[in-house]
Amino acid sequence: MRYFEDFAEGQEYPFGPHTVTRAEIVAFAAEYDPQPFHLDERAAAETMLGGLAASGWHTCALFMRMMALSWLNASASMGSPGIDSLKWRRPVRPGDVLSGRSVVLGVRPSGSKADRGFVKFRHEVANERGEVVMLVENSIIIGRRG
Amino acid sequence: MRYFEDFAEGQEYPFGPHTVTRAEIVAFAAEYDPQPFHLDERAAAETMLGGLAASGWHTCALFMRMMALSWLNASASMGSPGIDSLKWRRPVRPGDVLSGRSVVLGVRPSGSKADRGFVKFRHEVANERGEVVMLVENSIIIGRRG
Prior knowledge:
Two copies of one chain form a homodimer.
Chain A: E1 12-19, H1 22-32, H2 41-45, H3 56-70, E2 82-83, E3 85-88, E4 97-109, E5 116-126, E6 132-143
Antiparallel strand pairs in A: 1-4, 3-6, 4-5, 5-6
């Protein structure tokens, strides 16, 4: 188990991979983001995305899954207050193989609660060609040892 | 159909409601955010959240669904480049009834593409007691008329 004290600026925590399927793109969009460019190739071909692409929120959910399974669930995570910045840089397509890394930008003990601290990350999600598809910056609250 | 020209600072677009169930909280978490406080009441009771609560990404997905069905799909939306700020303010619990509004903060024609513009929003998601559970600021790209 990794605690607040174990995180330090410059560390990198890799996550993934996850292969994105057409079926999951359409299923997520049908439930949560029913816009034509996430649901139907023909409609999507005529849009800015130039073809079927995953909902940006689906990419967030897949990033969260990869992060939890690769490193976050082996830390004393207590959740997050939010997102400082999130950029959807490129479409995520059926067949894309996503992976990435969480880079520690800084650590800060909580000023009010002695049992925890904030670890600020830049998370980079890329496809199998190394193209960044999403960039996220946020802080995660991590419990202190003992 | 609502186009870029139809949006103006100060307008409010309501969305929702959506009643959150325990089953959907656990199902989303099992697939995308398998941390104990999103999966199991007993484990959750001992955490910062004080009981089972939806993944923040689940709240994002439900917000997206409400927004799409309530007003976004009746506009010429072309997607979004990202999120400027996102705050998870309160836990979302089984039985919560979510709704909210998208407030227009400003409009800006695209400098490079004559067929579209950026509409900046503050989106507020609240529960049935009027407590804000999530705040999001972002720009959505909206097509121009004709």
